[in-house]
Task: structure prediction
Amino acid sequence: MNMEKLAKGKRKITLNQSLLLVFVIIGLIIIATIVNPRFIRVGNLVNILQQISVLGIIASGVGMLLIAGQIDISVGSQVSLMGIIMALIIEKSTKIPPTAANAWMSAWAEPFAVIVTILLGAFLGLFTGFVVIKSKASSFIVTLALGSVYKGIALLISKGASFSLFGNFELLGRGQLFNGMPVSILFLVLVVALTYVLLKYTRYGRFLYSIGGNRKAAFVSGINTTMVTMRGFITVGLLNALAALILISRVGTALATTADAYSLDALAAIVVGGVSITGGKGTAMSVFLGVLLIGLVGNALVVMNINPYLRGVAIGAIIIISVTFGEMSETKR
Amino acid sequence: MDSKPILQAMQICKRYPGVQALDGVDFELKKGEIHALVGQNGAGKSTLVEIIAGSIPFDSGEIFIDGEKCMNLDPSKAIEFGVQTVHQENQLVEEISVAENIFLYNLPRTKYGFVNLSHCIQEADKLLETLGIEVKSGEKVSELTFVEKKLISIAKAFSHQAKILILDEPTASLDESGKKVLFDLIKRYSKLGLSTIYISHHLNEIFEICERVTVFKDGKLVSTKYIADTDIHSVVHEMIGKSSDKLYSRSKRKSVDTIKESILQFNGFSRQNVVRDVSFSIHAGEIYGLAGLVGSGRTELANLIFGIDKKESGTILLDGQDITPNHPFDAIKKGFGFLTEDRKDSGLVLMHPIKDNISLVDLVKKGQAPSFLNLKKETLDTQEMSKSLDVKTPTILQRVVNLSGGNQQKVVLAKWLFAKSNIIIFDEPTVGIDVGSKSEIYKLINTLAAEGKFIIIISSDNPELVSVCDRVGIMRFGQLVKELEGDQISEEQILKYTLGVNEAQAQGL
Result:
């Protein structure tokens, strides 16, 4: 048997849900374009990608974790909390009237905020992973609880008010390269590409799949399942930090509820993309396609002049349809 | 005592795919007798009692209970007919009271339709008192000891006006006092007319309390005899029967002295009371079998050796050098391989392709640092491995779940060989595997031994041990009680030590 034949066999196995998703996305683009030709303009497409960049970065991490069989629905609250702390640092250090004595403060505010956010991301991931592993309870329940904790802390710190960047720190969220290419898209592409490589071409990626596919078999095969899972949670925390930086940079202010919706949107995108909710199955590409679909639906509704509040209904329907289809193609096999 | 039969099963046949589980069995249970069913694993005794209890349908034959023909038997009908089963495993609901468990299917109610708990506890206490079981029925089941749980399971069976009581390995994990309570209970009630079907591997118990014994072999009823007219040896003999055609036998059984000098010593393995001070040694190229009943501590020993469970003591020396693993990763690095008892549960990632399953341990062995895979080389190498074990599949990208049991087992073996394991433990290597694949797996094991690997086979299939192993160690209650080698290895000898017949003899039974 030669490699060519092998490759063919592989294609037959991995298509299905991803292929369906591509068709749905193309179909949606065609319909939206027919209704309103402005949809297909480069400006709008760039806009869509910019809108999904935060969700895409968060979903890449959560997707990797789900492949290893763990759900993290505290991500939205993690991002909100980091956003609050980052904005707090920038607001406090730039609001003071600049004098010679404290000029260094405003100069160092942004790098300091970035470093704190990244460290906090790593810590939140580590802590979440630690609690999930030590409690031995379902990660869904544990992260539901932790999400509530993180959000509570964000509210305590902000006392319900918002913090503003006062026009500082705009590069990540609003900056552009080469006349119109948003910086955030660059990060999205980078994260998706790295996730793709990690999952497909590294040993660590293979371990994630094995643990999600059969935790016991992975353990008997010598994989340090605790360690691998822990690293997964830390990766999610770090990606959340990046997402928080981009999100707050784009919005310009931070509230304790800014990123609430991302927990479920990320999970929705991943599941729509075809990552198995029990783990062991899915790719970086499928996560990205799921994110893209969710971004397109929101934008297409606006562009087609349909009530944008329909978005939730549409996304819910898409999740149910894609999961049903995934289940069907699974049982047929 | 010669009384009317309470149960008559005539010409019962039951076929599972690939195996005739029961083949024209005529079985009769008299009123008030304690009747033992014995036979090796898969002989058909469990199938028969499950049919009587209505848990599984039968293909042909007739069953009469108290002279009445039972049609379309199901569990609830069987209970109406007065059949009660006490299973080997605990089937109580842990989080509710003893009383509620006892009356679970028939809870007393108040006139408003709510459960009448106080009445329930009263009735249960009354029942427990007549049975002589000292447990308060208001207690939660989860707070009881193991023995108490067993006794409650039995009490539950008594709550339904049972005429026929089926006990499946009732004394498994009961201590002496628990056994005594149980035996007294059964004896007392059989005098009052209760008929009991008693399944046990412990032949000395059977000779202690049963009136008749029926031997099964390969789905057929071999004989039914009064205990007084037989002895342990003839029962063992009947369980083994004429030796059937051997599936496979080693071409040449090596004597220990001619085997290469490299030696692997297992010293003093212990964990709680499950494994007790087990020591043995294997030479390179030797196939060492571990026989014993389910629960005798063999799998538990393997888990200790491989570092899956924490051991209290135990070291492994390879030519004098300590290679005791502390956890699976350590074991793998030191050249151990473990084909677990349940390949679907802990051997394979079923939804992943053959390729990924084969390469997994090797990837782990190379270290856990994130580094890149050579997918092309992996594909070619795993394909070669798969081919060398003759895994039957069109492509190694096939998901393992789609393979037959025999081919799945080959994939698990391939996984360990791909990682160049040198010490390989097979736990029940041929369970659920068809005859053709079985002999292929035996051949593979033999080839591995010929290459100088250390092989341990845990098996409950005694003919398998006889035909494949160079030496057989027999475990009983967590201890290694005997080692057989060369011509000593026979089904009869293995079975006798497995069942503790020799001990029973020593006690004068």
Q: What stands out?
A: The CA atoms of residues 63 and 152 of chain A lie 25 Å apart.
